[in-house]
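# step 3/5: fold
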Amino acid sequence: FGLLWYIIALVRGDLWHSDEDGWKPCVENLNSFVSAFLFSIETETTIGYGYRVITEQCPEGIILLLIQAILGSIVNAMMVGCMFVKISQPKNRAETLMFSHKAVISVRDNKLCLMFRVGDLRNSHIVEASIRAKLIRSQQTKEGEFIPLNQTDINIGFDTGDDRLFLVSPLIISHEINEKSPFWELSQAQMDKEEFEIVVILEGMVEATGMTCQARSSYLDKEVLWGYRFTPVLSLENGFYEVDYNSFHD
C-alpha cells in the first residue's frame, strides 16, 4: 500500500509541485517513498499523527484509503481469530477425552448395572464436566405406530448428581438397571437379539480458555458385554496413585 500511495503521488506530480502555492496534493507532506510508507502504516494502524493527511482533491486516494481500511480490518480480524483458535483448540482438547471401547453389564453393590469407563489424558482439568447418555433403537407403540431411531434417556446419576464429574482419574460411569431403566425388560438372551446404540456425550469447559468442548462416543449392541467388569487402572506407588492407560479398555 505504501507503494500504491507513492505511485499516486508520482502520477499526479505531487512530488515536484508540492512546494508550489495553490497546489493541492493528494496527501499533504508526502514527498518520498519513505513518507508514503509511513502514511500507509498510519492508515493501517489508525494512528493518524496528523502531519500527513489526505485531501478531498484526490478521488483515487479516497478509494485506496477505503480499500486499505476495509482490508486492514479483515486481516486484523483473521489474525486475531487464528491466534484465538490456536490457543483454545477445543476440538483438540476433546480428542484427549477417552471412552472405553466396550460397555459392560454386571452386578455392582447387589445391583445390576450398565457401565462404561471415561478418562482424560491431559493434566489440565475439564471444568464443570457433565455426562449424559441416550439409548437409540426402533420402537413400536401400543397403538401400533412404528418409531425408528427413538431416543430414550439413560439415567447415569442425574437425580443424585453423579452425572457431574471431577475427571482427575479414569471413572466408571454406572447406570442402574431398575424399573425405570429402558433395559429393565431385557434379559441377556433378548439383548443379544436387539439392535440398539448407546450414545454417550461428555461436555465441559477447557480450564485454560473457558471454551466449551464436547466429546462423544457410542456403543452398539455387539459392544455391550454381559457379565464383565473393567480391569482396575489405578495402582498405589510410593504414596502416589498411578494410572495405567494400557489397561484402560480391558
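# step 4/5: annotate
The chain has two domains: 1-88, 91-243.
# step 5/5: archive (pending)
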